[in-house]
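Prompt: Have a read of the protein record below and flag anything odd:
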Amino acid sequence: MSNDHSALGFLRFQDGVGWLGSIGFQRITATTTDPEVLRKILGDAGSNLLPPIRPVEMDLAALRFDSFLVARLSTRSLTMEWARMRPRSSRRFLILFVISGAVAVTTGLPRTVVENDGVLLLPPGRDRVLIDFMVPSEVVVFTFDRDEVGGLGDGTFSRDPLSMSSPVLRSACTYICGLVDNRAAEDEGNVSVLRELTRSMARALVQESSGTAEAADDEFDRILLVIKRNAHAPSFGPDQVSDALGMSRRSLERIFSAHGRTVAQTLREARVEIALRLLREEPPHSMEDVADRSGFGSVDSLRRACLRHLGRTPREIRDAGGLVEAVPSQQRAS
C-alpha cells in the first residue's frame, strides 16, 4: 500500500514543559506500513515500538490541543511502550477507548485485556505502560495533565475495564472522535468553547472511573445548601464556609475547582439571588437595606455584583420589575 505521512513532525513534545509549551491545535495524519515512520510518529508522542518490529499497516489521526492529546488509530500485531520518562509524563492520565478488537495493557499492575467497546483509565504515575494489539483493533487514546481535572485527580480509580454501555463513556468517546476527525474544530472562534468542552469530558471520565461522581455531587450540593443558608451574612466568607462544613479551606477549594467554580464566585451568586428577590418586593426597600440584607454590606458592592452577574445596576433591575436574566457564566469574572 502507499504511505501517506506528509504531516509528520507536527506533534512536538517540549522537554521541561511537555505539551503545555505549544498552545492551540497541532494535527497529524498518517497511513503507513513503514516501521521507521511508526517509530517517528510514536517517538514524537513520547512512546516507542517494541520488538519484534515488522511492517504493519496503521491508520492514524492525532491531535494535540493545549495539554490534551487525542489519537485514533487502527492497526494489528503491534506493541507500544509509554515509558513515562519525559518531564510531566507522570502527571498525565491515559484513557483507552477500544472501539473494536482487543488490546492488552500492562503497567505495574497485572495485565489487563480491554475488548470491543471497553474503556480503561490509567491514572498519573511513574510505571511504564505497554499496549499490545492482540488482534486487528481500532483504539482511541485520550491523555491529559492532572491539572485539567483539579481535585478529581486525587481519587481512587477502577483497575478494571469499563463498558461503553455507560452513556457518559459513550458520549465522551463520540465527542473525542469528532474532535480528532473534524478539521473545523481548528477555527479560531471554536477554540475557547472546545477547550472547556474537552476539559469537561476529561472530568466526567475521571469521575466515572473513580465511581465518585454521585458522592461528589452530593457533597457539592450539601456545600451549596450551607452557602445559600448563610449568604445573607456579610461576614460569611470562604473561611466561614469551610468552618461550617468541618473541612480545610484547601479541600473546599479543591471541590469547587472540580466543578469549574470558586467559593467566592458562588457566594456572590447566592447574594445576588437574595438581592434580586428583595428588589422585586413591594413596597421597595432602600438600596442600603437590600445591600445589608443580601450580605453585600455596601451599596457599591451590591452594584458591582449586579453588573457582573446580571448586566444591570440594582436600580435598573428594580425599574424592570426584577425581570432580568443572569449573564452567561463565561462572561463573568471569578
Q: What stands out?
A: Residues 16 and 57 are 33 Å apart (CA to CA). Residues 1-23, 326-334 have pLDDT under 50 and may be disordered. The longest strand covers residues 92-100. The radius of gyration is 25 Å.
